[in-house]
Amino acid sequence: MGPIAYNLCHKEVIGVAMWITGLCSFPPLITPTDVSLQEPGVVLRKDFNAPLDKSYLLSLRFVFPSTEARLKDELVGDGRHSKYCKGDVEYESIPLNERQGLGLPIPLKVAVRKQPEGTLVIEQTFQSLCKTFHATNDKGRSVGRINLKEGAYRIEVSNQLAQPAFKDLKVEISLVSGDAK
Questions:
Q1: Rounded alpha-carbon distances, angstroms, from residue 84 to 13, 33, 101, 175
Q2: What is the C-alpha end-to-end distance of the chain, expressed in Å?
Q3: Of 52-56, 85-89, 132-136, 176-180, which gets the smallest average pLDDT?
Q4: Dihedral pair phi/psi, residue 70, rounded to 5°
Q5: How many Cα atoms sit within 13 Å of 7 on the Cβ side?
Q6: Residue-wise pLDDT tens digits, 64-91
Q7: Within 12-165, where are the H helices?
Q8: Residues 6-38 pLDDT 10s
Q9: Phi-psi region at 65: left, alpha or beta (left = phi > 0; alpha = psi -120 to 50)
């Protein structure tokens, strides 16, 4: 999707028509990619293109062996809304009585460089907490938002903390538009 189509998708009348016909679909910049959180270190290094100047969402998806396993899960979180879910709060600074339902913290360091020159655009450690969506056998979490200008980039995501509790789950990471349109 280019800038013109993206802007038209946000117009009142034509946007609705384009949405209905599927012209407002926005493919992921990085399709869901399997990662392991078992050890600290780089879990993703990938080149991608940002087609528009906007904020993109880095997210995690956890696939459970069954719906029952997803319903019993406490690792990813229960989905309750909390002010701590935005990824900018250190887990240790959250009062103990407010941690229930947030899931285990997953600190991920994200570095994005403009290509081909390699200029650092963002380097930030996000604290991923809280379930943001679920489906039959999966749950998802937001990691954080990355503001980018149109262009070519390389992303490197590093797991900052070994997460052996997630060993029985398939974990995927993706970079998406983060908008309905």
A1: 37, 26, 11, 21
A2: 11
A3: 176-180
A4: -65, -45
A5: 5
A6: 999 999 988 889 988 777 788 877 788 8
A7: 12-20, 67-72
A8: 656 656 666 556 546 555 667 899 999 999 999
A9: alpha
